[in-house]
Design goal:
Elements: E1 4-12, E2 16-21, E3 24-29, H1 32-37, E4 44-53, E5 58-63, H2 66-76, H3 81-96
Length: about 100
C-alpha cells in the first residue's frame, strides 16, 4: 500500500520515529542502525516503507535504502527460522568481504 515517504522528522525514539507529511504524523519503526543515520529533528527525510498488517495492528517499517526494505520483506516471508539465519549469515559475509 505504501512504498515511500518524504517529510519532516519530528520525533526520534529508540524503536520508532515520526515523519510529518501534509499535516499527518506517521509512526515508523526503524532499526537502531537506520535511526543513527537519520538527519536531525526538523530536517527532511525519505524512507522506503513496508506496511505490515496484522489482526491487531497496522505498522510501518522504514528503511533508508530500497534494497534494505526488499531484504526485510524477503526475510519475513520465510517460514523457517533456519533459512532466515542462513540468509543473514550470507548477507553478513558479503558485507564483511
Amino acid at each position: 500500500m505504501f512504498y515511500s515517504i518524504e517529510g519532516i522528522l519530528v520525533k526520534k525514539s529508540e524503536r520508532f520515529i515520526v515523519v510529518e507529511n501534509q499535516g499527518l504524523g506517521f509512526r515508523i519503526f526503524v532499526s537502531q542502525e537506520t535511526n543513527a543515520k537519520l538527519p536531525k529533528l526538523g530536517e527532511t527525510v525519505k524512507l522506503f516503507l513496508h506496511h505490515h498488517v496484522k489482526e491487531d495492528a497496522m505498522d510501518l517499517y522504514g528503511f533508508l535504502q530500497k534494497e534494505e526494505m526488499e531484504l526485510f520483506e524477503m526475510l519475513i516471508s520465510i517460514s523457517s527460522i533456519c533459512i532466515v539465519l542462513q540468509v543473514l549469515g550470507k548477507k553478513q559475509q558479503n558485507v564483511l568481504y
